[in-house]
Amino acid sequence: xxxxxxxxxDSLFEAPPLGEQERMVEAILFASAEPLGQSxxxxxxxxxxxxxxxxxxxxxxxxGRGVRLVRVGDAWAFRTAPxxxxxMQKERVETRKLSRxxxxxxxxxxxxxxxxxxxxxxxxxxxxxxxxxxxxxxxxWIRLGRRRMTPGRPVTFVVTQHFLDHFxxxxxxxxxxxxxxxxxxxxxxxPPPGAMPGLIGDDADQGEDWDIPDDDQEEMFD
Length: 222
Prior knowledge:
By secondary structure, the protein is an alpha+beta fold. The protein folds into two domains: 18-88, Winged helix-like DNA-binding domain superfamily/Winged helix DNA-binding domain (Arc Repressor Mutant, subunit A, Orthogonal Bundle), CATH 1.10.10.10; 95-220, Arc Repressor Mutant, subunit A (Orthogonal Bundle). The chain has helices spanning 18-31, 38-44, 51-61, 100-112, 117-124, 130-138, 161-166, 178-183; strands spanning 36-37, 67-72, 75-80, 95-97, 115-116, 142-144, 156-159, 211-213. It has a three-stranded antiparallel β-sheet with strand order 1-3-2. It has a three-stranded antiparallel β-sheet with strand order 5-7-6. The longest helix has 14 residues, at 18-31.
């Protein structure tokens, strides 16, 4: 959008050349933390300056550059060229702890796959929330397996190649046993309250040491 055509104020002094006015407006906008309206810019310029003409000249001068002079509502500001916005993005990977319920569910699937929701609940002794399953699916650590050829044909869950890659395993058969887990300090010798029999020993809920990448579904984490 073109700058508004304003009235140049009368002055006893000769206004600076348009090129110098451009430089002044450029400096004002670069130094401002917020977009500035044309009138606010004009108030900072020497008498006799034409803020509208200086803004129009700056718009043309910055065409095709890494930054552009753009109108933001009724104000003006320098902004990164739209096609270069990707350069301003920074990706950062954060780790969080899986919730106890998610760890137990993941461990059951890993050691008992293919496992149905009913089988997971039977081993855990409590119901499995849909959110827990959805989270593990979203993380690509589990996937849907074949349906059981039983009444209702329930779906099964199995671990993914991504899960195996994350833990440096060639196949689920390479999962550590109880002795290895205890030697690594991931299992205590005493079974905690509410342990899951038949999983990977009575200490299966000590898996909070498994880190996973950050995820938008933060409500699924403890």
